[in-house]
Design brief:
By secondary structure, the protein is of the alpha/beta class. Helix content is 42%, strand content 14%. The strands form three sheets. It has a seven-stranded mixed β-sheet, sandwiched between helices. The chain has a seven-stranded parallel β-sheet with strand order 14-13-12-15-16-17-18, sandwiched between helices. The structure holds zinc ion. Zinc ion binds next to loops.
Length: 687
């Protein structure tokens, strides 16, 4: 493990300052082999003078919920050390009370709640303290001879604490064991099955000790274990960033899951969502490490012994589901009943059972799958699983993977502080459920780089969906670039490119629920008599054949979707055509007819198909100020009058169309299919 301390950068900060604490905390936080997603914590102790002129020793410790990788000065909470040390002397304290008492020791009421491990930082008599859940160290302790191995590797350098769940009991344990110990003989402390502390009188030394100590564990693993990957030779990991997708991961190639695998993935996702009671994303990891793990003959047995550290439990649950390709539904139901049985075995009647859906799965032959209600949640699970898979194999090579017992797992998973979050609170009663409508849902929008398509992509995303947008414009990958969005450059008239883009969508997020068929073109006005053959056939290809082909590619996945919905972006020109626009209106009318038939064909699979007819939408690239001016002039109107040529005398914004599309894709239209909805400010010819 590399020491990333940069003397030049560090020299900007005062030796003994909170800014220096921020600097070295971030160094630790940015190394995923040390801490993952909010794990670990750091502290520093300063002498400060209070309002009354009294000198106090203050412990600045990481605030609860803050991430070391991105922490700022205000992420640290100042606490009176004297009060904390008094607290440590109390023999019995519930963790709820400990948290309350810690808050009362704060010298700044606006600071975040302190880490639940704050008292450990108080007990250790050093100025600078770093705590991580370093993979290598915890992996070694998660073996039958964990403690002996740690002693072999570190000699007398580390103070060793047996496993006790984080919280007041752990603080008391460390306090008790440290009574007759000279802390100065140690460079750090290892908490078996949990993590490691380093400490010193300077930030640099404490950080350096952490890196040196963890490096020793890594070296030991490097020497004594190699992870074997039993993969076919043609398997190459593929990054599915928008740019590499088109060239590298063509369905059918070994590097890309084949169509049937993707369909199965969508089925897995649907079943997991059903068990959880809400839509989940399913992130497939089919890289060589994940597949190598999933292919191990004893994977079912070793994968289900427990997590690296109890810190991961709230994200991953104690064990993954092991998917049986022969009987997927059954294997997921078995997971749920197994989880329920574990709860029943362990509960003392005081706890509330959490949902029974797995947070990750091992898919023999394919890899691992991480589940979550949104891209952040599933991404975190995916990262933890990547580390877990490695840790398990390393541990197996040095004596066997042996995390803490089921009792300990339950104790940590159903910790009173976690359970408290589930209880309804008086002050939030009556507040409406703020889960976004499309959370966990996966949407695909064609023609998403501008205008109505872009508005739809953004609105679906804002309402919680992950969104894939297709567009001819190569800039689409930058336009839709936030996590949970993917822009794919794609010519919708190229059937192969379209089916690849659909496959990429499922590969990336696990399925498909909402399809917005928006891509279209508005050809130059020509009467039937003067119609140019090119104009006609091109419009038909883009406005009629392309949506047919995209829908066709999506149907197998929509069938596995969660309350799946298709929306056709037709036009007011369908119910109220005008002269000179046959090349546009005829394929749009064809789309409408196709949608009606699709509604009939797909209803039995629960797929809703509806049609939207927008008009008077002028905030698109098509309608430049000049074009508006020209059109208004043709009718002898001002631009404002022209825009309000409808019953309500108001133009329609792209965002308003997008909101209508969301309504049609969501629960408002749950019982509506085959409908045609105008959004045009009211058109007399349509009414
Ligand atoms: Zn910890």
């Amino acid at each position: 493990m590399k020491n990333l301390w940069d003397p030049k950068e560090a020299s900007q900060f005062e030796e003994n300052s909170l800014q220096m604490r921020v600097y070295s905390s971030r160094l630790l936080g940015n190394n995923s082999d040390l801490v993952l997603h909010g794990g670990g914590n750091t502290s520093v102790k300063f002498q400060e003078t209070n309002l009354f002129g009294e000198e106090e020793e203050i412990l600045y410790v990481k605030g609860s919920g803050y991430n070391l990788a991105t922490i700022e000065k205000n992420g640290f909470t100042p606490l009176r050390l004297k009060t904390l040390l008094k607290l440590v002397e109390v023999e019995n304290l519930s963790d709820t009370e400990m948290v309350r008492q810690q808050k009362m020791a704060m010298t700044n009421p606006d600071a975040p709640s302190p880490s639940v491990e704050a008292l450990l930082h108080a007990v250790i008599p050093f100025k600078w303290i770093d705590h991580t859940h370093a993979d290598a160290v915890v992996t070694i302790t998660n073996t039958p001879r964990g403690k002996e191995l740690i002693q072999e590797i570190y000699g007398e350098r580390l103070f060793i604490i047996p496993y006790v769940m984080p919280g007041f009991k752990l603080v008391r344990k460390v306090h008790e064991l440290a009574r007759n110990v000279d802390w100065n003989q140690y460079e750090g402390m290892v908490l078996l099955n949990h993590g490691i502390f380093s400490f010193a009188e300077s930030a640099l030394e404490s950080y350096t000790r952490m890196i040196d100590l963890v490096s020793l564990a890594e070296k030991y693993l490097g020497k004594n274990s190699t992870i074997s990957c039993t993969l076919p030779e043609d398997s190459v990991p593929v990054e599915t960033g928008a740019k590499t997708v088109a060239q590298d991961s063509v369905p059918g190639k070994a590097s890309f899951p084949e169509h049937s695998t993707l369909q199965t993935l969508a089925r897995i996702r649907r079943k997991v969502s059903e068990i959880r009671g809400s839509a989940m994303l399913a992130l497939l990891n089919y890289g060589p490490e994940a597949r190598g793990f999933a292919n191990l003959p004893n994977v079912k047995e070793i994968a289900t012994r427990g997590p690296i550290t109890s810190d991961h439990l709230i994200r991953t649950k104690p064990v993954p589901a092991v998917l049986d390709p022969e009987n997927l539904e059954k294997s997921l139901e078995n997971f749920a009943s197994g989880y329920k049985a574990y709860f029943e075995r362990q509960t003392n009647g005081q706890q509330t059972c959490l949902d029974c859906a797995p947070r990750w799965g091992v898919w023999p032959g394919k890899g691992t799958v991480a589940f979550g209600r949104n891209i952040t949640e599933s991404g975190i699970v995916s990262d933890i699983v990547e580390h877990t898979v490695k840790a398990i194999q390393h541990a197996e090579a040095i004596g066997g993977w042996k995390p803490v017992t089921e009792e300990h797992l339950f104790e940590a998973e159903y910790w009173e502080l976690q359970q408290a979050k589930l209880k309804p609170r008086n002050d939030v009663r009556g507040v409406k459920n703020d889960t976004p409508e499309f959370e966990g849902k996966i949407a695909l929008v064609s023609g998403a780089a501008s205008g109505i398509g872009l508005a739809c992509a953004r609105e679906l995303f804002e309402q919680g969906a992950v969104v894939v947008g297709l567009d001819l414009n190569p800039d689409i990958s930058n336009i839709l670039s936030e996590p949970g969005m993917l822009g794919i450059e794609c010519d919708v008239t190229d059937q192969k490119a379209v089916s690849e883009a659909v496959a990429v969508t499922v590969r990336k997020f696990g399925g498909l629920d909402v399809l917005v068929l928006n891509a279209g073109t508005f050809p130059a006005g020509q009467t039937i008599e003067e119609m140019d053959e090119q104009t006609w056939s091109k419009s038909l290809a883009i406005n009629l054949t392309a949506p047919q082909q995209l829908l066709q590619s999506c149907v197998p996945f929509l069938k596995e979707g969660i309350d799946p919905a298709v929306i056709f972006m037709a036009s007011r020109n369908v119910p109220a055509p005008g002269p000179g626009a046959s090349a546009y209106s005829v394929p749009k009318a064809g789309q409408t007819q196709m949608a009606r038939i699709a509604a009939l064909e797909l209803g039995e699979f629960g797929i809703r198909v509806n049609i939207i007819h927008p008009d008077c939408v002028y905030d698109t690239g098509l309608w430049t100020p000049e074009a508006l001016e020209r059109s208004a002039k043709r009718y002898g109107l001002t631009v404002e009058e022209y825009k309000g040529r409808n019953v309500l005398k108001k133009d329609v914004k792209t965002k308003e169309v997008a909101r209508m599309v969301c309504a049609m894709a969501g629960s408002v239209f749950a019982k509506t299919t085959g409908a045609q909805i105008p959004i045009d400010g009211g058109n007399e010819r349509v009414i």
